[in-house]
Design goal:
single chain, about 550 residues, alpha/beta, GMP Synthetase, Chain A, domain 3, eight-stranded mixed sheet, five-stranded antiparallel sheet, about 30% helix, about 25% strand, globular
């Protein structure tokens, strides 16, 4: 098996009448009067038709096709068809600003932008920002395909190492980097999921996986999609996370697996208990949730209330699922940010700022690689047009994750924070993520991002940029109350020394904080005196 396309064809022949894709009507209501349901044989028929038309129009290996297709069936069908010809796809988030979309499309040298017909206005706004000579193709006009120009790789030969997709990192600091991902990357990612076992054991031909995550990201493309394709399961692809209708969607779609982001458990826990048959108990339907970033204080409460485990995992676009670490086996150390023990095929190290291995239990940056002669097996192939960044990421023969974690004596790993988000105050390493988790539980806080600001005495001080809850007064007393309440869950040196109230915070298209921009914002607000100084509350407890 050499490609995603070949994997799909093989499964469609084994499970022709099995459900491949389900998009609930509530998620398709903007473009369809009904939900979307495709069996493997139906999907394969469409894939083959698309592949034949692309071939006739001259598409082959070497061409990149930018996809502006949202979380719709067209994304999967066109991706698989193009993959069968050796073409690479460049997913583009339709919620990005035009300038962000244009950067990705131009940087990737995409030959054509394939888009949904109802996104024509967005495409029109994009055209002045895009390189001349590229084509524009609506999925509604597939009988009149744009014909791309010739390229240096005039072949439809498909191999494991051929580029399958270029996924751009979120770009929380600076411009996003394009991760080149091969067929091998996708197949190994899917196979790793299938072989996890433990709490994540999959039954061929029986699983139904619901995910609200965007198809423009690695998790949905390489994990959920490939896992279902490899086992003849059904992908339940939602447009996004809808808290109020989430559980009804899970019930109606008969999901046996759900994928989540860290914010989802917190929002679901905050909702009123469900009435009617089953209530909040999904123990007889959902086997497990798969995701990352659940607030440690919510983890056990969620599992107890809803009846299934949330399996925490660590991974990056660069590592794929093959290079992920997953807490699929007990003990999972629920409530501790544990993401499991590294699998046997990976080597890992935790190092300090100078590259020295840290002691057991001490935090350090996670370095990893595949065991054996090929340390990059299953990982990304490199950053597009950026060999310097690729070499830096693989310095010394190890992939440098940039994530700070700690490992206990039994091998289990615990997430601390991104290295750039660790605040060094008076010799203490403070995780911005931990402080944020403590503050966001405060009723006066709607959203918070924590970052370091300079301190002449302590090196760094903790500053919290807070979007207050509706009706909350933006005054000194509020800041003092928030800081004082945070002492109930955080060590004195971890609580904010400064608090600033803001209307909004810079976010990436995937709703992650633009931490570089927020650090600059925090520093400017501190320098202008537009924040509250609560450092007097940071007192060591008397003994």
């Amino acid at each position: 098996m050499e490609s995603v396309y070949q994997c799909f064809v093989d499964t469609a022949r084994r499970y022709p009448e099995g459900d491949f894709l389900h998009i609930p009507q509530a998620c398709a209501r903007h473009y369809s009067d009904t939900g979307i349901d495709l069996t493997y044989s139906q999907a394969l028929a469409t894939v083959e038709q698309l592949k034949a038309r692309y071939l006739e129009a001259g598409y082959n290996g070497g061409h990149r096709v930018a996809l502006l297709l949202q979380n719709r069936a067209q994304f999967l069908l066109h991706w698989i068809a193009l993959n069968g010809l050796g073409c690479s796809v460049v997913p583009v988030n339709d919620e990005m600003a035009p300038q962000e979309q244009a950067y990705i499309i131009n940087h990737s040298d995409a030959a054509v932008l394939l888009h949904l017909p109802d996104l024509a206005e967005k495409v029109a706004a994009l055209k002045p920002l895009l390189a001349g000579g590229m084509g524009y193709q609506s999925t509604a006009e597939i009988d009149r395909l744009y014909r791309p120009g010739a390229n240096s790789t005039n072949t439809t030969a498909v191999t494991l190492q051929r580029e399958c997709a270029v996924l751009y990192t979120s770009g929380s600091t600076g411009k996003p980097k394009g991760c080149i991902l091969s067929n091998d990357y996708f197949l190994r990612s899917g196979r790793r999921y299938v072989e996890l076992g433990g709490l994540c054991a999959l039954e061929p031909g029986r699983e139904r996986l619901a995910t609200p995550l965007p198809l423009v990201h690695m998790n949905a493309m390489a994990c959920s999609t490939l896992a279902m394709v490899m086992t003849g399961g059904c992908l339940i692809q939602l447009d996004r996370f809808h808290p109020r209708s989430w559980w009804q969607t899970v019930r109606d779609s008969r999901a046996s697996i759900v994928h989540y982001l860290g914010v989802m458990p917190a929002m679901l826990l905050g909702m009123e208990p469900q009435q009617g048959p089953g209530g909040d108990d999904f123990s007889g339907q959902v086997k497990f949730g798969f995701g990352a970033g659940v607030n440690p204080r919510h983890h056990a409460a969620f599992e107890q209330r809803f009846g299934f485990p949330l399996v925490e995992a660590w991974g990056m676009t660069e590592t794929g699922n093959h290079g992920a670490i997953v807490a699929n086996l007990e003990p999972r150390h629920v409530g501790s940010c544990c993401f499991g023990v590294p699998p046997a095929h990976l080597e890992t190290r935790l190092v300090d700022e100078i590259g020295a291995t840290v002691a057991t239990g001490e935090p350090g940056e996670l370095l990893l690689r595949h065991r054996g002669e090929d340390p990059r097996r299953g990982f990304f192939s490199g950053y597009l047009k950026n060999p310097e960044a690729t070499a830096e990421a693989w310095a010394g023969g190890w992939f440098h994750s940039g994530d700070v974690v700690r490992q206990d004596a039994d091998g289990a790993m615990y997430f601390v924070d991104r290295r750039k988000n660790v605040i060094r105050r008076s010799g203490e390493n403070i995780s911005a993520l931990e402080v944020e988790a403590g503050l966001v539980a405060d009723p006066a806080v709607a959203m918070v991002v924590v970052c370091p600001v300079p301190d002449d005495v302590r090196g760094d001080e903790v500053m919290a940029c807070i979007i207050p809850a509706p009706g909350t007064a933006r005054e000194s007393q509020t800041a003092t109350d928030i800081a004082r309440r945070s002492l109930q869950t955080l060590a004195y040196f971890k609580i904010p020394g400064y608090i600033a109230f803001v209307d909004s915070l810079p976010l990436t298209p995937s709703e992650k904080p633009r931490r570089g921009d927020i650090r600059a914002l925090a520093l400017s607000m501190l320098q202008r005196g537009e924040c509250y100084d609560v450092r007097h509350l940071k007192q060591r407890p008397r003994t």
